[in-house]
Design brief:
Distance between the termini: 33 Å
Number of helices: 3
Strand content: over 45%
Shape: globular
Length: 142
Amino acid sequence: MNSSEFQVRALLESRVDASQAKDVDRLMSHYSSDIVYYDVVPPMRYTGHEQVRRNFVRWFGEYNGPLSLETHDLTVMTGSDAAFAHMLHLDSGTRKNGLRSAMWVRSTVCLRRSGSSWLITHEHISLPINPETLQAWFPTDR
């Protein structure tokens, strides 16, 4: 593993830690000011720090207590000034309505080197569906 890949993996791990702690300031420190973020909830496209921040605050607010975000199948590719990663996340926790939920989401992240550090410039989240029912697919083992 080269130093760029190590740095990107550390950033992605810190992003997960910040999400689980619902620490929006630490989470946003990993994103560029011109971030473009595609999510599964309307309006589905968020641009810039303020829109993305509001979306994260909304997401954190859906949970009573902590949320869990487990990363699976992480792949990272780095170049001199650009990198991308793709992974699966198992997002789980207790919703405000008391329902314990878990869902798989797919995530693709693009990063740009800024000085000696990396920042996320683009993120795309998608929710897998069951093609037979066209309903979101949720894990049955959680």
